[in-house]
Write a structure and sequence with these properties.
By secondary structure, this protein is of the alpha/beta class. The chain is built from ten helices and eleven strands.
């Protein structure tokens, strides 16, 4: 409790140095007011009354009153601090996710798509003050979630993204163009796209270069991520009779030159994720590169504690005055 008390006028606590001076003054004053007589023996005299011994208590009451008064003058108070944050310059983000069959390759564990969804979920949770949207693309593209500040909706939509919802293929230009369309009218301080793919553009009617020029025109920065190991990866190569995928090793082909060009033209950056750890590090780096400006308002509520001390000092002085004019009147 006492560690929560602060003093508004702590410099007045130096008045406590007056107390030793008052003690010295009282001692000298007492010696001058009470003359001593030297005799060989006090036998036959009455012993000093108990009231005479207790008369010094009046001065003790004054010292206590003075001490309490000094504390009151220093204005002890407790402080209650509450805060409220406000996003002053937020960021609108669209995550464009490749959901082609190659995203089921198992070079990332348990596969590329599930590894991405886990890392992307952490990224979304780390952006509480931004609006986020989702675009899914394969041979075509669509908006899974428009930009929203409701992270529960975004996370639920991310979890629902799976292979088989779109025609197979890799339409990088379509995915990027759809993401641009979601952001072009945004009034946010910063607009960014995180575009992830594990292949080369082989579908769609919008060229990646055209989509990149649109992003540049609307001031949308694009971070591109190529996901997949170097060399061969265990990937879907055919269907089994029961409709499940048959897996075999296939060479990983990512159009890195295209992804680097998109990132450079839009002011973003290209990354390559060859395993789960690198994918996590990439999203962490993007998280650090794109920071949101937050304004924090702090409210200080002070509760004064000097009033009880002032009343106590007054009570002590009143008690000292009453005792000095009644019980100890003959000793003052």
């Amino acid at each position: 409790m006492f560690d929560q008390i602060k003093f508004a006028n702590p410099e007045l606590l130096q008045l406590f140095f007056l107390l030793p001076i008052a003690l010295v003054w009282y001692w000298f004053k007492h010696k001058k007011q009470h003359a001593s007589v030297k005799i060989s023996s006090i036998e036959g005299f009455d012993s000093t009354s108990i009231l005479g011994k207790l008369r010094h208590g009046l001065f003790v009451l004054r010292l206590l009153a003075l001490s309490v008064l000094i504390l009151a003058l220093a204005r002890p108070q407790t402080e209650d601090i509450s805060s409220r944050t406000k996003t002053t310059k937020g960021i609108d983000i669209v995550m464009a996710i490749d959901v082609s069959s190659s995203m089921l390759a198992k070079d990332l564990k348990p596969n590329r798509l599930r590894a991405l969804k886990k890392v992307a979920s952490n990224f979304i949770n780390d952006r509480p003050n931004d609006r986020i949207g989702l675009v899914a693309y394969a041979g075509e593209s669509y908006t899974k979630t428009p930009i929203t500040s409701d992270k529960s909706i975004v996370l639920r939509s991310l979890n629902e993204i799976n292979y088989g919802q779109l025609e197979d293929g890799t339409a990088i230009g379509m995915g990027l163009a759809t993401a641009v369309n979601r952001l072009k009218d945004s009034k946010a301080k910063s607009k960014i796209i995180i575009l992830l793919t594990d292949g080369v553009n082989n579908s769609g009617f919008i060229e990646p270069k055209t989509a990149s020029e649109l992003a540049t025109e609307y001031g949308i920065k694009t971070y591109t991520i190529g996901i997949g190991t170097n060399g061969n990866a265990l990937s879907p190569i055919a269907y089994n009779p029961d409709g499940s995928f048959r897996y075999g090793f296939r060479k990983v082909e990512i159009d890195e030159k295209l992804l680097q060009s998109i990132a450079k033209d839009t002011g973003g950056k290209y990354f390559r994720a060859t395993n789960n750890e690198k994918l996590e590090a990439i999203y962490e780096e993007i998280n650090q590169l794109e920071t949101t400006e937050i304004e924090e308002f702090k409210y200080h509520k002070y509760e004064e504690k000097f009033r009880p001390l002032a009343l106590l000092a007054l009570g002590l002085l009143l008690l000292e005055w009453i005792l000095s004019h009644t019980l100890f009147k003959s000793f003052v």
